[in-house]
Automatic annotation (TrEMBL):
GO terms for molecular function: glucose-6-phosphate dehydrogenase activity; NADP binding. PANTHER family: GLUCOSE-6-PHOSPHATE 1-DEHYDROGENASE, GLUCOSE-6-PHOSPHATE 1-DEHYDROGENASE G6PD. It catalyses: D-glucose 6-phosphate + NADP(+) = 6-phospho-D-glucono-1,5-lactone + NADPH + H(+). Gene3D superfamilies: Dihydrodipicolinate Reductase, domain 2 (3.30.360.10), NAD(P)-binding Rossmann-like Domain (3.40.50.720). Belongs to the glucose-6-phosphate dehydrogenase family. The keyword Oxidoreductase applies. Residues 220-511 form the Glucose-6-phosphate dehydrogenase C-terminal domain. Residues 317-342 are annotated as: Disordered. Residues 43-218 form the Glucose-6-phosphate dehydrogenase NAD-binding domain. This is Glucose-6-phosphate 1-dehydrogenase. It comes from Monosiga brevicollis. Transmembrane segments: none annotated. GO terms for biological process: glucose metabolic process; pentose-phosphate shunt, oxidative branch.
Length: 524
């Protein structure tokens, strides 16, 4: 149809938010004022994959770009007996460098790493850990940060031992905890009560790495630094909102872990729900941590528990025509996954926020593994033009592309060039590669680790936020665990179950033929 034609128009548009974004990116070069006291960072679970692939590389980047306090020591702790040579061999391939100077700095970073082994549930091991930390410095004030890169099964033991034996005598003590924070409302409340008896809320940093991603952080700037968007950011102008996180691979050897949690616990209850709250929240009093988290929690309180009829669950099966060996295998073919597993690897869910701003606007979350592409994005789809004089005009959409290739673009209609009076869809595009070139964007983990060092908890999850999140999901999670909800099957490499598209269309999301492309001439 004529309204579906794509105009080859890619203007180098600068939104009014550009100055704000430039300011934010400039902060990345030296984002935090340095602490003057010594800091000792202890990574518990230093021999694990999380530490190797994410935590230590993030600490390295913070070190090489001078975002750590000058007097910072990094100590690893795990059950494995590792020598310093073992540490270097383990971490060196994971630490990226750019040139000879970086290589020298990396060698210095690796040389400075320390390590001690011990158990996670015995007092004498943590007394030994405390003695080792004390031996690392004779400074008057020594701050301590503990990064728990461990399975949830040992959270209670480890936090109890840290509280009893390893808190700083002078300076702060902070504990960074990885998700998942429980499996449902009851288990979360139990874990939270345990940790609250050991540490104050301002000592606990519950990390959700999506809150450290550049485009997720830009949601606040986009909404509240630009007058052009706020008047239309409500039920009178927005038809629906869709949040998507798609992965084009399976569980990649994590079948046993994933089967215990499933796609809802893995990404929907945390990453995507956090994005929803940032999109839907009211303007906070300030950018202070509690002001932001107060508004996010208010949004969650307005959402009723998820119902089965508002969801479509899926589980991938092998694609006989797949190009790779992985794609020809189904979820239950994965190692450590039972043949009769009921765990969903795909979910689409519709949420309704019952407040004055969003009453009647569906918020749709889609996420899944083994799909046709890898991407994460937020789409705000505006209502159709009333009394459309051009006939069948497609809707405007504001899209925040979180990954890959960070971008913000607005899908609009323009007149086709030449004598035609028909309209075609194009975009006003702020692609980061085009606009900001080679400016460095810190990884989510680097940004959040340095934020925790500085005591900035705005991008960490508060206890009442988590309680509300679990309240929303717990009923349907219990139904899934009890086998009351059976996932639909979908082929590896597809869009997911067709029933999910039917649910989305039922809730007023309109698909258009136009697809955004970042391959503009000015980017080449």
């Amino acid at each position: 149809m004529s309204s579906q034609k794509v105009a080859v128009l890619h203007p180098a548009v600068s939104f009014s938010l550009t100055q704000t974004l430039v300011s934010q990116l400039n902060l990345c070069r030296n984002p935090f004022t340095k602490l003057q006291e010594q800091l000792i960072i202890t990574v518990l679970g230093a021999s694990g994959d999380l530490a190797k692939k994410l935590v230590y590389p993030a600490l390295w980047d913070a070190y090489r770009f001078d975002s750590l306090p000058e007097d910072t020591r990094i100590l690893g702790y795990a059950r494995s007996k590792l020598s310093h040579e073992d540490l270097v061999e383990r971490f060196k391939p994971q630490l990226k460098v750019n040139g000879d100077d970086d290589e020298k700095k990396r060698d210095s970073f690796l040389e400075s790493l320390d390590y001690i082994h011990g158990q996670y549930d015995e007092a004498k091991s943590f007394k030994k850990l405390n003695e080792h930390i004390e031996s690392m410095s004779q400074a008057k004030t020594v701050n301590r940060m503990f990064y728990i890169a461990l399975p949830p099964s040992v959270y209670k033991d480890v936090t109890e031992q840290l509280s009893n034996h390893c808190q700083a005598k002078s300076g702060f003590t902070r504990v960074v905890v990885e998700k998942p924070f429980g499996k449902d409302l009851e288990s979360y409340q139990d874990l939270n009560a345990h940790m609250s008896n050991l540490f104050a809320e301002d000592q606990i940093y519950r990390i959700d790495h999506y809150l450290g991603k550049e485009m997720v952080q830009n949601l606040l700037a986009l909404r509240f630094a630009n007058r052009v968007f706020e008047p239309s950011w409500n039920r009178h102008h927005v038809a629906c909102v869709m949040l998507t996180m798609k992965e084009d691979f399976g569980t990649q050897g994590r079948g046993g872990y994933f089967d215990e949690f499933g796609i809802i616990r893995d990404v929907m209850q945390n990453h995507l729900l956090q994005m929803l709250t940032l999109c839907a929240m009211e303007k906070p009093v300030s950018t202070g941590p509690d002001d932001i988290r107060d508004e996010k929690t208010k949004v969650l309180r307005c959402i009723k528990p998820l119902k089965i009829e508002d969801t479509v669950l899926g589980q991938f099966v092998g694609n006989p025509e797949g190009e790779s060996e992985e794609s020809r295998k189904g979820y239950t073919d994965e190692e450590d996954v039972p043949n009769d597993s009921n765990t969903p690897t795909f979910a689409t869910a519709v949420f309704h926020i019952e407040n004055d701003r969003w009453e009647g606007v569906p918020f749709i979350i889609r996420c899944g593994k083994a799909l046709n592409e890898k991407k994460a994005e937020l789409r705000v789809q505006f209502r159709s033009v009333p009394a459309d004089i051009f006939g069948n005009s497609t809707r405007n959409e504001l899209v925040l592309r979180v990954q890959p290739d960070e971008a913000i673009y607005l899908k609009v209609l323009v007149k086709e060039p030449g004598a035609s009076s028909e309209v075609a869809q194009t975009d006003l595009d702020l692609s980061y590669k085009c606009r900001f070139g080679e400016q460095r964007i810190p990884s989510a983990y680097e940004r959040l680790i340095v934020s925790a060092i500085k005591g900035n908890s705005a991008n960490f999850v508060r206890s009442d936020e988590l309680e509300q999140a679990w309240r929303i999901f717990t009923p349907i999670l219990h139904d899934i665990d009890a086998g009351k909800v059976k996932p639909k099957t979908y082929k590896f490499g597809s869009r997911g179950p067709s029933e999910a598209d039917d649910l989305v269309k039922k809730h007023n999301f309109s698909y258009a033929a136009y697809e955004w492309s970042q391959c503009h001439d000015q980017c080449k």
